[in-house]
């Protein structure tokens, strides 16, 4: 069972709002079809607004056939027929949203076609070569950011007085212009966002110095 943040709270029955194009990078919406206790087919949907609620907390909202059923802060685990829906976020989207059955098997929920994740999945199905190229480019950008960024971060850390007094100041052999550092940060954000749309996460690449962890 995944680590969870808080208690699952009951929903208020409001209707799931349609996905809008301007929410591509701020909202995740996934669906799962399950058979309910009475044998009827049900659609379970998970809606995550990455900007958080008024209190700053990012919550997953669970809907059944379009009606609000429950909510919980992330990471969350929602009991559903035959298993659990687990949801966890990273700094650039979701790192996991899966249905874990009672027998331990797991499968990812299906992204809404209008969502950023849905559009990225559509690109993967329709243009696999381009999709692979984008994926490899994202990894390459993050590796470059890691190699170029770590020495600069270490130098900054050794300039902290208690650290400097203990081990001395380490001077990085890499000196990047400010413009290049800014470009590197922008490229890293874009690469991490692309990986987030595919629910790819690595502690080293996506949760490191330039990435965003949970």
Automatic annotation (TrEMBL):
TM stretches of this protein: 133-154
UniProt keyword annotations, A-Z: Membrane, Transmembrane, Transmembrane helix
UniProt keyword Membrane present: yes
Protein's name in the database: Uncharacterized protein
């Amino acid at each position: 069972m995944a680590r969870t943040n808080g208690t699952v709270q009951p929903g208020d029955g409001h209707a799931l709002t349609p996905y809008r194009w301007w929410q591509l990078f701020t909202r995740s919406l996934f669906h799962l079809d399950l058979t309910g206790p009475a044998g009827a087919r049900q659609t379970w949907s998970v809606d995550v607004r990455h900007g958080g609620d008024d209190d700053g907390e990012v919550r997953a909202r669970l809907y059944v056939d379009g009606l609000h059923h429950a909510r919980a802060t992330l990471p969350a685990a929602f009991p559903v027929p035959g298993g659990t829906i687990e949801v966890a976020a990273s700094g650039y989207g979701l790192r996991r949203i899966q249905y874990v059955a009672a027998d331990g098997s797991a499968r990812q929920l299906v992204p809404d076609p209008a969502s950023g994740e849905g559009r990225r999945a559509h690109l993967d199905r329709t243009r696999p070569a381009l999709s692979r190229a984008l994926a490899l480019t994202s990894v390459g950008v993050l590796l470059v950011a890691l190699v170029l960024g770590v020495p600069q971060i270490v130098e900054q850390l050794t300039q902290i007085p208690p650290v400097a007094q203990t081990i001395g100041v380490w001077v990085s052999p890499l000196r990047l212009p400010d413009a290049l550092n800014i470009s590197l940060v922008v490229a890293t954000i874009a690469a991490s966002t692309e990986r987030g749309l595919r629910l790819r996460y690595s502690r080293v690449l996506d949760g490191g110095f330039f990435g965003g962890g949970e």
